[in-house]
Amino acid sequence: MLILLVSSALSLALFVVIENEVQYPLIDLRVLASWPFVNSLLLISVLVVGLFSVSFYLPQFLQNGQGLTALNAGELLLPQALVLAVLMPLAGRIYDQFGPRWPALIGLAINAYGTYLLTNLNVDMTRQDVIVWTIVRAFGTGLALIPIMTNGLNALPPTLTGYGSAVNNIAQRVASSLGVAGLGALVSVETAQANADYGALIQTGRSVPGLQQEINTGSPTILGLYRDVQLHAMSTAYDDVLLVTAALSAACIPLALVLKRPTTNGGANVSAAIE
Questions:
Q1: pTM of the model
Q2: Which of the ends of the chain has fewer CB neighbours closer than 10 A, N or C?
Q3: What sign does the dihedral 202-206-208-210 (CA atoms) show?
């Protein structure tokens, strides 16, 4: 792992040096000199992390925690996909009408609230709960994503717009991969801790009537008890992950407050600044 980390850091540094020296770079890193564009990358990365974390962990809980099939779990997530598909084109028109600040601000707030609602994951939640919660956060994501992305690209001069689009795509891919991996590590830690906490409550026969006798006789009830502990530990871990995701969305609201539509000569100003 250390060798991989060191080699990755050196390769990244070498890539930056080469890209700044060649005449036709694969990625023109001068786009990172534009704060409005970098700000959009940060906001988009957080939204993508939330989008992929819910899409990855919620179906797992529905299948492992509530016993749904993959098809049924997908059906519960279909309404949020339809909301995104309908809202994203409308969000472009909203941006043209009102600019980036208010759609991004309201969208992030709704996204954070919808993700917070999902922290109520438990084995007894209804299908209606899942549909409503995911629709709420999908509405916030769809409202904020397109205005933020469009505003960041519009802040660049025309000669760098193509490179900005490439960097935008890279940021989304990296954020989704690292976000899911990082949250996966958090799930592992939280699950282990929750198992230890719940297990400590039933280590003696005094906590559950007749438990010690069933342990001595090898009763199959112990298997059911073990499964209950596992389900509660898993729901606790997923709740914590979604709480972190909601906190990230809420923490980015101040970044949305500084968004403003680029002026007509904004691209020229950026070009002059980076030259």
A1: 0.80
A2: N
A3: positive
